Amino acid sequence: MAVIENQRGFTSNLGAILAAAGGAVGLGNIWRFPYMLGQNGGGAFLLVYVFFVLLIGVPLMMTEFIIGRRAQSNVVGAYRKLGGNNGWILLGVFGILGAFLIYAFYSVVAGWTLNYIVLSCKGGLAGKDPAAVAETFSSFTQGSFWPVFYQFIFLLLTGLVITMGVQKGIEKVSKVLMPVLFTLLLFMCVRSLTLEGAGEGLRFLLKPDFSKLNATCLLSALGQSFFSLSIGMGAMVTYGSYIRKQDKLFSTSLWIAGCDSLVALLAGVVIFPAVFAFGMDPASGPELVYIVLSNVFNSMPAGGLFAIVFFVLLGIAALTSTISLLEILVAFAVEELHWKRRTASLVCSLLVFIIGVFCTLSFGVLKDFKIADRTIFDLFDLITASYLMPIGALLMTIFFGWFYPKAEVYDELSNGGTYKPRAFGLYYFILRYLAPLALAVIIISGLVG
Ligand code: TRP
Description:
Blueprint: H1 5-8, H2 13-24, H3 27-39, H4 43-71, H5 75-83, H6 89-121, H7 130-141, H8 145-163, H9 166-193, H10 198-206, H11 215-229, H12 235-240, H13 249-277, H14 288-299, H15 303-336, H16 341-361, H17 376-403, H18 406-413, H19 424-448
Tryptophan binds next to α2, α3, α11 and α15.
């Protein structure tokens, strides 16, 4: 098949890195990571997390890039092309399903950021005591109209970017938003670190307490690293197919994982010193950044301004990620079903909206509708991050390490033999033995424990 490389995807390596880092950096880093860390004992979780990112995350992200770029195709097409007729295409279907589920619950929290941007611009949180701040959060999230409305707006925004295409939409938007995100984050770090009593929060973040670690923590840290890097379900396969043939996949993956971990760490640096400085609870769960930080903003000088900056930051992070989620679905619909990009974008967004509304309402009218003791929202989160992603990753390593020819892996990684990729032996060892073994052990112990 003739491939017109540079018309299909990103125009530069920087564009590819920023777009994929945009997909990776998201609510996962700024909303989910801090509360997972808060609930799993702080520093020890961070250490395990970083270990998983380096040992399994980077090699697997690279694997997804290799698969996507080799096949020049969306996730379903990629497994069909590279896997022959052996059922590996199911891994692609798995990816589409996962993207749907994630996008459905992710867009709920993304919508919340819009509400909080509006609220903080209007000064709607200023001067409220902690009880009133918590009440604002719960009466908003438990409502029906407004959370669904903001979720819809977020889906619409994402849909517009995707309709504009890979280069003019995804790449351009990422090139503007990612530097803005970093700047805002650094600004917030300075504020947080200069608070009186910041040290205790830093200690919580950085000082490991290994007595808190157990199998569930390990599974949570693994799930978090996959969720944050967007790996395990072929999301990066789609972006991999847009990376230029001359770009080096190892360094590209390292940059992306580096950006992603840095943002998670900096988000921790923003959040925990502030949480401790104002005596809030670091283990308060999913509402950590919304309720706890709102209180924090209320008690600091010029907090109103910092609240706006923070929620804009959160919104930007969420947007570049929802873009990557929708692109998985749209690339599939365009390439496999031959829909027009605009139609695909519209229909996929609508489908996600229909499922997503149930996730939104699971905080309100559907609060008591529980499956296995979890609301729909929690269930979607748990199924994807703790099961689909690790299992998807395990199957991918089995396919690519054991069934796909090593020579072809080497050929793609070395850009057709034009340079010698670093540490290929190590990469292949991780792909073939270490990653599947580690994944199997963790999945099983998570299931049993
Ligand atoms: N990585 C994103 C975050 O940290 C979430 C995300 C975006 C994702 N696209 C994905 C997760 C695809 C899994 C698969 O917020």
